[in-house]
Design brief:
By secondary structure, the protein is an alpha/beta fold. The strands form two sheets. Strands 3-4-7-6 form a four-stranded mixed beta sheet. A three-stranded mixed beta sheet has the order 1-2-5, with helices on both faces. The N and C termini lie far apart (44 Å).
């Protein structure tokens, strides 16, 4: 099983999504979309979403499929998205990494031999006194999906990259139709 975590920093709510195939750009964005839809009424007033990401290759600001899907997500939800990446070798500063450590300690050597057991154990851990929201995505994801340079150009034009840190700070504005 492939875990993906979303930590709502302000509330401390941890969301853990498990997949059954591969950690791809599509899996990551599907997890974000599912989480966002579940928060529709809670976050309807939000106009800007800041997402802190690790430096994994599947969510890199150079990953064409990831950027394409994030631009589409921004447009569909009419929300500005600011992607902020932790620099390489700085995962210790990323709160989600600490969540994984707490989960691993919680499992404490338990044999996790099926999806139900993994999800059940995950639901009983706590982060800042709160149990995580746990979900399973059973879609199968294709590895290696990418756009041609020409096709990606349309999406690249939509990005506002920081002049000092173009790989680590990227803003996506929703399309303003009309």
């Amino acid at each position: 099983m492939i875990p993906f975590g979303i930590l709502e920093v302000k509330s401390g709510q941890l969301n853990v999504v498990y997949g059954i195939s591969y950690e791809t750009s599509d899996f990551i964005v599907d997890c974000l979309e599912s989480w966002w839809l579940s928060k529709d009424t809670t976050f309807q007033h939000i106009k800007k979403l800041v997402i802190n990401l690790d430096n994994g290759p599947q969510c890199s600001s150079a990953r064409t499929q990831f950027i394409k899907r994030m631009v589409e997500f921004s447009d569909q939800n009419n929300i500005e998205i600011h992607l902020i990446y932790y620099p390489p070798y700085h995962s210790k500063y990323n709160p989600i990494e600490r969540c994984w450590g707490v989960l691993e300690s919680h499992w404490n050597g338990t044999l996790l031999d099926n999806a139900l057991k993994v999800m059940s154990w995950t639901k009983t851990m706590t982060w800042k006194g709160i149990n995580p929201v746990v979900k399973l995505i059973e879609d199968v994801y294709e590895k290696g999906v990418k756009l041609t340079k020409k096709a990606f150009g349309v999406f690249e034009k939509r990005l506002l990259r920081d002049e000092q840190l173009p790989k680590y700070s990227v803003v996506i504005q929703p399309r303003q139709d009309g």
